[in-house]
Amino acid sequence: MLKNKRAWIRIVEAFVAILLIVGIVLIIINKGYLKKEDVSSEVYDAELTILREIQLNDTLRKDILNAGAPPINWGDFPLSAKNKIINDIPNYLDCNAKICGMENPCIIKENLEKNIYVQSVIITSTLDEIDYRQLKLFCWEK
What we know:
This protein is of the alpha+beta class and 142 residues long. The protein folds into 2 domains: 1-35; 40-141. Helices cover 46% and strands 18% of the residues. It has helices at 2-31, 40-56, 58-65, 79-88; strands spanning 93-100, 117-124, 132-141. The chain has a 3-stranded antiparallel sheet.
């Protein structure tokens, strides 16, 4: 009878040990110790800052509006706006931009196996002219 009680005690001890180990692993996973760093909010803030500066700068806005018929890909981008984007992007990002009309979807043609972060703004003309363009900035981690 004494040996039978010891066997049950060992079974209960093993069960409690397994529960403790599983509990600790779940706590570690829940706290985020094993997660990757999420940079999406930083990327979106950087993109929006660049786009707002372009949107509020009269010279850059006119260059975008006078760049030709949309869509305008990164290779044909107005040089002043392209330099502004290149100079202001953080070092850990690669970025591409596209100018599109308001009625057309504005998508990137490159096939990247990475997370792509996208922000867009509307570029409008002055009071003298009526013209609308969509400027989209596509960024991904290097």
